[in-house]
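Design a sequence for this backbone.
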């Protein structure tokens, strides 16, 4: 005889958490705790947090650059209230810094990685 969740529910009652209304999956006579959804990645961080992702040497190269594109990127960053790590201009700007050698190859992926709770704006 195999396990039948419908019969199980008729005998033992519904597998519903009365506080949350969540239905618990029943499998082979055991109630399985529902898996929690993975948290949403943090893709918006504060300007200060974004700046701290650069090494001191990289920051000096950005600050002392005479490249007009680098200067404009810096000005726009400083005028922002937060940094959206998926915003096309942000992605392209970091790619440009890598292309001109201000940051090392591969660093753009590190700089554009998901944020942490501590990096959220207003923290």
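Sequence:
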């Amino acid at each position: 005889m195999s396990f039948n969740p419908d019969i199980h529910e008729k005998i033992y009652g519904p597998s519903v958490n009365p506080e949350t209304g969540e239905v618990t999956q029943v499998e082979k006579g055991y109630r399985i705790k529902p898996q929690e959804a993975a948290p949403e990645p943090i893709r918006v961080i504060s300007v200060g947090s974004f700046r701290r992702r650069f090494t001191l040497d990289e920051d000096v190269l950005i600050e002392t650059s005479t490249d007009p594109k680098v200067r404009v990127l810096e000005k726009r960053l400083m005028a922002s209230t937060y940094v959206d790590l998926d915003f096309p201009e942000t992605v392209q700007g970091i790619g440009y810094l890598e292309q001109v050698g201000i940051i090392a190859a591969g660093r753009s992926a590190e700089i554009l990685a998901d944020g942490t709770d501590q990096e959220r704006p207003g923290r």
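Residues 44-119 form one domain.
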